[in-house]
């Protein structure tokens, strides 16, 4: 029985991280539309942002959150935001350099991997 609960919490954690990643990407897409003149408006990032935030809220109400998980979720949000920023700046080089955004994404992904137990597993 406890094996099922831990499996359910692990799947819930992954779902939360993916939703936070999507929310970060969509938030940055909306911000890019406002700040980068080459990016045109699309309604789809707004729809995806609303749906991902709603799903995050429903997941928050349904499942308990471990103590250190909000920081990991926030890091996943920033991975999505900075990842989309790097993609946009690679697509439109006049918007600026994407070096900082790529470095932030790599550091945050390493930290998330360490917190989730995929990198540098503790004995």
Automatic annotation (TrEMBL):
Keywords: Membrane, Transmembrane, Transmembrane helix. The keyword Lipid metabolism does not apply. The chain crosses the membrane at residues 16-33, 39-57, 69-87, 99-120. InterPro entries: DUF1422. It comes from the Bacteria. This is ATPase of the AAA+ class. It comes from Vibrio maritimus.
């Amino acid at each position: 029985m406890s094996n099922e609960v831990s499996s359910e919490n692990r799947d819930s954690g992954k779902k939360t991280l993916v939703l936070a990643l999507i929310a970060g990407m969509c938030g940055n897409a909306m911000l890019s539309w406002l700040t980068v003149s080459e990016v045109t408006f699309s309604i789809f990032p707004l729809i995806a942002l609303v749906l991902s935030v709603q799903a995050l809220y429903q997941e928050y109400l349904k499942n308990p959150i471990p103590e250190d998980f909000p920081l990991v979720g926030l890091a996943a949000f920033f991975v999505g935001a900075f990842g989309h920023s790097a993609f946009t700046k690679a697509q439109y080089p006049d918007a600026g350099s994407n070096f900082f955004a790529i470095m932030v994404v790599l550091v945050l992904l390493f930290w998330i991997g360490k917190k989730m137990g995929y990198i540098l597993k503790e004995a």
